[in-house]
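Quick illustration, no need to memorize.
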Amino acid sequence: MFTPELLEYINNAKRRGVNDDAIRHILTNNGWDENDLNEAYAKINKSEPKNTIPVAPAPAPAVPASEPATPIIQNIPQDVEVPLSTDPSFMQTTEGGKRPSIKTLLLLILTIMFVGGGTALGYYSYQKYFGQTPEERIIQSLINLTDVRGARINGVYEVVDPEITVSLKADTSVLNPQDGNFKEKGVVSIRARYVSETQENVRGQSSLPPISTLDVRLTIESMVVEETLYLRITEVPYLGFISLDEIKDKWIRIPLNEIRETKSSEDFQSRMLTKEDFMIIEEKYKNKSRLSVQSLGKEDINGMETDHYSFQFTDEAFAYIEEIFITMLKKADVDEAELEEEIKKTRPSLASLKELKNEVWLGKDNLPYKFVIQGEIVSPPTDYTESRTAAVRFDVELGEFNKDFEAVAPSESKTVQEIFQAVMQ
């Protein structure tokens, strides 16, 4: 059975001057049936021949209807002229075949765009993160943290000096979405042990109760829901002179606005630096070496492949941290005399940071998934204590960045005043 496409092909060939024998030769060599050709020629008028031969359309081979037939062009003489373009309908096959769909072309274009776009994105990511030096990656990861709206934090912080040992363990999730509906949920365990070396401070006055040792253990569940902080003490310390059993396993609620309105909170918030503050300081030090970094290979942290680095602060880092500290003081409207005094007291502490040994694990998203900081630091003097050296260890894992979680306010809770009255009774 001939097709309209076959008739069109023969007509085009004859208009180009190709003789009938040549046309039949090409068509039969490409699988067309002689009866189909005879039927087609019965409908066509002949014309004068020329010297070039166009490529013939291919009939469909005998294949199942579910499989599209593919035109086969073979055994074409070397002097045959192959057209550079054809009508899309020229690709039509016999019954059972299918015309290549425009969807196929679109799919091909989309595939090229996807592969090309993916390659460009990969190159951009490499240049932005993995094209950076290890020092630049570490610094960039800290800047990236300022854009994180939430995370799960699991870690330990320990401080040990000749008199006091403090250990704090926390496993908590926080989320501060764009709408400002901050929430938190977690558990914090604190152990503080005091062993007195002296009963007098630098001013000659009693600095602590007249006891030689004190060991306090405290475990607190915390939750922030709808601008309210809820606390529940599940392990209460034994203080001897006062019983805290009345508050054990009871939820205490504290509106966050009450915390924000306290002087200590106002002082702290007034000193907080914005990302813009950090970027101004960062611009001044971006070409200076602030970290001495060593690569320790790759390591898995909670299912995330990370790059493990160890680093120490350089003298430039000391100047960088000091400038951050000075900027914080200036934001709190500290006068020049007080500023100089604070810098003088704090400088030995900042300088001791250079001796710390630090490690960080960075993910492919260039966020830190683990920190370890350990060594000795010098605490600045206060009105009641002299400057002293303490061993510190900070080991924390981060994850579940910007992930939502459920935090439901407890059905029963009491205010701080109600709890205080119950304890004093």
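The first strand starts at residue 150 and ends at 160.
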